[in-house]
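Quick one:
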Amino acid sequence: MVYVITGGPGFGKSVLIQKLHELGYPFGGEIARQIIEQQIANGGELLPWKDALGFEKRVMNERIEFLKSIEVETVAFSDRGLPDQAAFSKYKGKAVSLQLKDAITSNYYAKKVFLTPPWRHIYRNDTIRTETFEEAEKIHHFIVEAYLDSGYELINLPYVSPDKRIEFILKSL
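Output:
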């Protein structure tokens, strides 16, 4: 069963995924970021600002591939999920593509989704995550809406250290 950890950019998801990985849990990383970094490094064109639909399809397919690779009885974690892609489309003022809508309705994560709430104290942007804190908060609200619309139960993570957040997640499974 794949549990999603989501929330606005820069609110601590990737740190938690890394710590869960170190504890031995299978994980799906932040695929969109990985693809962007790879494409920039290689001079590629599969970037959301150059080929939005192609980029969406690649991210979507890799998320589905990870989801299907995990046995039902195995606990695994994913840094974001398919509804995040719908949230980012809506944030950018774009309609959610039919391919993505179909993927969301036919691929399921664990019902409980862990949400990293906006936390200015830990927020950092970088060359890939260029949003301001306020923009990240807006994205966060679109993410919340996308998961609720898809029927998931959101569990807000407390404002505590990453280790305490991991303890909270594992107790909540």
